[in-house]
Amino acid sequence: MQCRPPARAVGLRRIGAPTGGRSTVIRPANNVNELSRGRIAAVPVIGHAGARFPLLNEPTVRTALRLLPLPFCIAVSLSAQADDALRPNYWALCPIEDAVPAFADAQAPVGTVEDRERQPTDIDGDALDGLSGMDSDFTGNVSGNVTLRRGDQFLGTDDLQFSQEDGTFVANGNVRYQDRGMRVVADRVEGDTISESYRMDAVRYQLTERRGNGGADHIRMDGAVGALLGSTYSTCTPSDRWWELRAGQIDIDTDMGMGTARNATLRVGKVPVLYVPWFRFPIDERRLSGLLFPRISQSSRNGFDYTQPIYLNLAPNYDMTLEPRFMSRRGVQLGTEFRFQTSRARGELDAAYLPSDKLAEREREREAEEVPIVENRRKDDRGFLNFGGSLDINPTWQGRTNLTWMSDPRYLEDASNNVDAGSAISAQSQIGVFGQGTSGDLGYWNASVLADYQLLTDYTLPEWILPYNRLPHASFTWQRPYGRWITTGVDSTATRFSHLDPVVRPGGSRVDIKPYVSLPFEGAAWFVRPTLAWRHTAYSLDRELTDQIAAQRARAELGIPGDQAVPADTLALYRNSSPSRSQPISSIDAGLFFDRNTRWRGEDYLHTIEPRVFYLHSPYRDQSALPVFDTVPLTFGWGQLFRDNRYSGADRQADANQITMAMSTRLIRESDGREKLSASLGQIVYLSDSRVTLPGEAEVEKGRSAWVTDATYAINDRWTVSGAYQWDPKFRREDLMSLRTRYLIGEEGIVNFAYRRRAELIEQVDLSFLYPVSPAWSVVGRYYYSFTDDRLLEAIAGVQWDSCCLAARVVARRYLRNRQGELNNAIMFELELKGLGSAGPNTEDRLRRAILGYYRDDLYLVPPSELRNSDDDETLTPGLSQ
């Protein structure tokens, strides 16, 4: 943002008298002697020397109304580093009080900031005297309720003296300026529009969009260079100044976009907590190298933890942040973040290096006993590297990459403070090209070519347990409707699988293609969608994998013991390096919609009943000769009732002769569309056995699946209860039970409770809350426990204090560190100066992940992932696999 005024602008315009008020009008006229209170017939334009008196509608030079925005660039300089990423309800506790209240005589904003160049200036006052000159060199004085208006800008004063000859002016008494972003008052303003020198005395300002306010004893400016003397800045109200930033002098250069503060002091209450004799900072959108706010925390593994970010503005399109970090129990780590952006590419490189980690040395003897795999132990010198970026090749295609490297499998465990990171077994790196497009003739298509690589992050496991790497993987999907009733498409992939341990898990290649045609018949109250597909999957296997599968088949069919070698001639009979599978898949999905109006408890509702039937048929194909690269059985639930395969991945296509019968109902409040009740019930009837299985998996026998039910009920607008339940009638047992409830307290508080139990797999309870004790004080907590493992997963206890402009949080955490059940303790303290920044780790992001609804708006969005690192994590963990 350049604060210097442009040289030219459009001229004055004629305005009419406002209704019901005084009829003062300032317009160009030939009769300069026509003066009377309530009407001024002529006034010169305040501008550069040599400008003649303008004729009506003639363009002219004028800078008077640009007077205050120019020196105001200095006044707002203390707020230049204010945090613009305001959080929800950021100013909720602020009273309706401004340091500079709105001016009663200011007009409503008209147009935008960009429109100012094209809008005329209207000048109004009670009287004009001292006028001399006819066509040039005007000198005069406008007095009594003087106002200048242009678009969204307003300038008011008691007295305005000006000289057209030398370009000088003086505004005395009750000087007021206002536009869309600020309000300013001063006792006196004087300036020279030719030399562009200005001076303001006793200034107070208010930023209307982000609550920043403050003042200065004096402001002076000469061209692009200026200074503030005795300046202040805060987002607090004047009557309740919790914090304030003061500076004895601030020098400003608007051409360079830079400010230099001298003798700056940050006060919290009346106590100075930080003194800086000299520092530089940006005053516009240009970035400037310097120190950022530090992060301070305490934990049982790191001890006292201090990080001091140092920002380096290397060029307009790339920068770097160095992050030296001191951990009293581990040593000194150097981290860095490098970012770049061009018209077509953008990316970010994050890295950290910790030489001679004291933690590795301290736990070396213990680790030798607990970690038998030598390669998985901590290295002495530790670090990580992550690069993520994208390249816009053309409007259709984009290249993307996300690459991760870690020095040892225990780095993630020691570096991250995320709960789920402790149970992740791998981090995935990926690079690829992705494209998509739509054409009326060709339909919609989506394609990609990529490669991914798995990195072990669980020290308790050997490398052979990792998923296969896909080097490379290509996919193509296409779909096109023909008229209203026919849709065709194809899903296809081609992949080369390889593994870090090729001896235990040799690889191979796979091509999978699935063309289909669907007939989507539907109306307002019904739908019938028959679909016919053909799936063909072909392989080219490495010799070692071919022999492994042949041996497994021979043992299974011939009963050869596992500890006995399969004879070579027998192995040759079962060897097939190019197995394939072709299988038709047909289905019919049909449903009806019934609705009626009903009234319940004094309110009108729309009640729906939605029966649905899904029939699936696919013949049996022997798939024992096929490998298993990336296929696992899907978790049984509501969505599984209507899928054409119970496996993910292409290595298995289940045979099926089954029918799903389901029913859903909803109760929708007509006044606002809110669902009072939604419930669903469904079951699969297997008309024959499903014989296709994965190794070690039992067949699905003829009969009925477990009943699947989901329900959500809004007891009122604040209390919601939902649950899921699965009952297996064959074994007369409960397969799944899940209960969730949420209660909203006031405008910000919330209590969440969840209980999950799946037979022989998990049993967990999760309680979290944000409870406001008063408008200023609140307590937060979480208790996340696994009954299956008899283990605490995470516990949080914290207290928050909030005010209009200052907030403080103290949070204690105990969380799972690794799959062995070891726990870590941490205490975090954050002090937030709203609108300026914060000191300490980002506790709000951590609480937001742990407590759904910590930000009320998150209840209506996708919850933040637990696997995404917060700003205070020193590593990125993309693509975690479990």
Task: Describe it.
The structure is a single chain. With 882 residues, the protein is mainly beta. Among the domains are: 35-202, no CATH class; 301-505, no CATH class; 517-714, no CATH class. It is built from 7 helices and 48 strands. Strand 6 (153-163) and strand 7 form a beta hairpin. The protein is globular, with a radius of gyration of 36 Å. Residues 381-777 form the LptD C-terminal domain. This is LPS-assembly protein LptD. It holds the Pfam family LptD.
Brief write-up:
By secondary structure, this protein is mainly beta.
Relative helix content: under 10%
Distance between the termini: 49 Å
Oligomer, anyone? single chain
Q: Per DSSP, what share of the residues sits in E-state strands of 2 or more residues? A: over 45%
Largest sheet: 26 strands, antiparallel, barrel
How does the helix and strand content classify structurally? mainly beta
Mean pLDDT: 82
Query: In DSSP terms, counting alpha (H) and pi (I) runs of 4 or more, how many helices?
Result: 7
- What is the number of beta strands? 48
Could you tell me the radius of gyration in angstroms? 36 Å
Estimate the global geometry from the Cα principal axes.
globular
